Amino acid sequence: MYGNAQIDPKEKAKSLTDGEDPVLLAEFEARVSAGEKVEPKDWMPAAYRKQLIRMIEQHAHSEIIGALPEGTWITRAPGFRRKLALMAKVQDEVGHAQLLYSAAETLGKTREDMINDLINGKSKYSNVFNYPAMTWADTAIIAWLIDAGAIINQVTNSKGSYGPYCRALERICSEESFHLKYGHDNVVYLATGTPQQRDMVQDALNRWWTPIMHFHGPPDKISQHTEVLMKWKVKMASNDDMRHKFLEEYVPKIWDLGLTIPDPNLRKNPDTGVWEYTEPDWEEFKRVINGDGPCNKERLQVRRWAEEKGAWVRKALLKAETKYTVPLA
Amino acid sequence: MSSIDPRIDRLELPANEDGKEVMNKLEQWETYEVFHQKKRGDQHIHVGIVHAVTPEMAIILAKEQYTRRRQTSNLWVVRTADVTATAYDDADMFESTPEKTYREASDYYCMDRIRKYQLEHGIKDRKEDRRKVKEAE
């Protein structure tokens, strides 16, 4: 589960191709525009490598941190079948993190460095996981709608140019389809249940609407930087386009259940076919992504705790003669 | 730190340890490339990597990671360090030249010669009979 890559607005556009060999760059761009995949040992612009490492690494962190809000509810799942399904989903998310760390590793950053950067706060993860899953219904909303947003993002990115990332995403998407069905089933069950269950799922939807609207990131500023990343097929669609795709597909399904969405301006303009909505609070988004959300500290501390407590096992098993080789693909 | 998860509360996590690094070099060991065979008779196909200490451990992790949803009959793992690969830059060495068409099945067609010989020597064309039967139907 993940939103779109965050592009650092402070980075200058021209720096993306600065100092690159123009012949190699032209060959590279021709290959990408012809739809060929780039493989780990191919020549690539330094900025391409850097942006992909950042993006895939953030995606991996999001999977591993994303397992935490839902994981909270495994011990209190309502019934054995739901417990088994949630455990399977959480295991999937952690598995997705591993696939993505592997893809990022092929670009030359070790898994140790990525995990360190997650824990010391240098590297971000999807903002939505800094919010708590207050009730069981929150996990239902996450599994259905956050995963729905993630699928839209991941299917789009799987058409990108970097081979190992595309292959990881294809594998991930095929597993996410279970998450989506499981989440939908869960929401439908609550929404068609007792009045208490209905209230519970409506409350969860109200709580999660802002994070859901934040999910694909703030509207992109049209910059040269974005244009280059789109030409290189690192960024495949604008944040607003993906958000629109999400609204188009899922708002009607939410309304089908008689649930309400806490935005009085949300409607599809019948003349333009475009969804209109109130912009979510982007100041809140910035504040939370920079560390001041309800769960940021807890998420990282739990992760750090897990790494620290597992360290002795990894050290005990480490063979003295181990040499690291960058994975092939 | 207080959490809505009682299990996390019990950990009594410290409030702040920003900037601290926990993962040492090589702590995640080395990588193994994983090859997956769907059913007997199929090719083994490369599906990704796992981090492991021994091949046996790599097999266990590969089973968890790559066969959760997939039909599987067999897995191979091999240390990444033990794989020798060609470079994409050398891909031209796999190209065939136009002069080598004698190696292609599509370069051989002699029906014209057969038909010409049949006409000259009054030999019936079997396929013509078949064509007539088909048209009659």
For the structure shown, list the relevant keywords.
heterodimer, A: 329 residues, mainly alpha, Ferritin, two-stranded antiparallel sheet, 61% helix, B: alpha+beta, Ubiquitin-like (UB roll)
Characterise the protein shown here.
The complex is a heterodimer of chains A (329) and B (137). Chain A has 329 residues and is an all-alpha fold. Chain A has helices at residues 22-33, 46-71, 80-105, 111-119, 136-157, 163-191, 195-214, 224-231, 239-256, 282-289, 296-317, and strands at 267-268, 275-276. A two-stranded antiparallel ribbon of chain A has the order 1-2. In chain A, strand 1 and strand 2 form a beta hairpin. In chain A, helix 2 packs antiparallel against helix 3, helix 5 packs antiparallel against helix 6 and helix 5 (136-157) runs parallel beside helix 7 (195-214). In chain A, 43% of the residues are buried. The model of chain A has no long low-confidence stretch (mean pLDDT 93). Chain B has a domain at 28-82: Roll (Ubiquitin-like (UB roll)). The longest helix of chain B has 12 residues, at 55-66. Chain B is elongated. Chains A and B meet through helix 3, helix 4, helix 6 and helix 11 of A and helix 1, strand 1 and strand 2 of B.
